[in-house]
């Protein structure tokens, strides 16, 4: 009788050990998945930074070769870069002020770079379709355009825009926005060459983000928030 009891206890003991091993394995798997997700997100942020830096290089190459900005170039037609010239004022504008569509030079910006073979992809400059007339950003959360705000002497990229619209989408989390900002600029949402904006705010003249960053002084990105609340504006260095 005692032998049977000991045998049962041993069997129960082995079962607990096995259960503990299973729990440890599950924990390792879950931990590995979470780490893997973080690595993927970090890689996507680096890809956006690389995308912007590559675009700056492409703009500089275009300027050196054609003596003007893509989209804004006054001799684009004679150079065989498309069917539309820009006005040569050094800014990438739409046809209306403020913009009511991503048209005019904003639309032709990608077409000129595409024909000049300075960016990957074929952008025909005939519409405002994401993936056709302007590309996705590398986070796959909305598109990226180039524009010069009215009253400004500078041009910017808008990261996180949607097909046919002139507003930022709720496309980027505060963590992603901070990652991009800190790698390109100062890591603060309302200063420097990278600024954050509300999802839904107008690209031209839109308000700075409320949910994307705090109202403290200095303002900080709302890192604990996991929702997509931000669009980003990045000054073009080309």
Runs with pLDDT <50, length 5+? none
Tell me the helix content: 25-40%
Structural class: alpha+beta
Q: Helix tally?
A: 3
Percent of residues in beta strands: 5-15%
Shape: elongated
Rg from Cα: 25 Å
Order of helices and strands: HHEEHEE
Q: Write down how many β-strands occur, each being a DSSP E stretch of 2 or more residues.
A: 4
Write down the overall mean pLDDT.
Answer: 84
Largest sheet: 4 strands, antiparallel
Total tally of structural domains: 1
N/C terminus separation: 87 Å
| Sequence of strands across the biggest β-sheet | 1-2-4-3
Please explain how this structure is put together.
With 238 residues, the protein is an alpha+beta fold. It has one domain. The protein is built from 3 helices and 4 strands. It has a 4-stranded antiparallel beta sheet. The longest helix has 65 residues, at 2-66. The mean pLDDT is 84.
What's this model, at a glance?
A hairpin with an 8-residue loop joins strand 1 and strand 2 (156-161). The protein is 37% helix and 9% strand.
């Amino acid at each position: 009788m005692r032998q049977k009891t000991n045998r049962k206890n041993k069997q129960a003991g082995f079962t607990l050990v096995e259960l503990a091993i299973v729990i440890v394995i599950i924990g390792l798997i879950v931990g590995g998945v979470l780490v893997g997700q973080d690595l993927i997100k970090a890689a996507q942020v680096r890809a956006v930074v690389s995308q912007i830096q590559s675009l700056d290089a492409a703009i500089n190459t275009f300027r050196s070769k054609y003596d003007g900005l893509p989209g804004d170039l006054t001799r684009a037609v004679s150079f065989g870069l498309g069917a539309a010239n820009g006005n040569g004022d050094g800014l990438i504008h739409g046809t209306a002020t403020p913009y009511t569509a991503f048209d005019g030079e904003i639309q032709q910006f990608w077409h000129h770079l595409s024909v000049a073979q300075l960016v990957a992809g074929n952008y025909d400059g005939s519409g405002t379709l994401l993936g056709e007339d302007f590309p996705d950003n590398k986070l796959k959360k909305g598109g990226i355009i180039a524009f010069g705000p009215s009253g400004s002497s500078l041009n910017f990229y808008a990261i996180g825009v949607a097909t046919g619209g002139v507003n930022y989408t709720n496309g980027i989390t505060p963590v992603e926005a901070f990652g991009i900002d800190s790698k390109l600029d100062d890591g603060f949402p309302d200063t420097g060459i990278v600024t954050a904006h509300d999802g839904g705010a107008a690209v031209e003249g839109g308000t700075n983000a409320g949910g994307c960053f705090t109202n403290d002084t200095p303002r900080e990105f709302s890192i604990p928030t996991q929702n997509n609340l931000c669009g980003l504006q990045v000054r073009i260095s080309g």
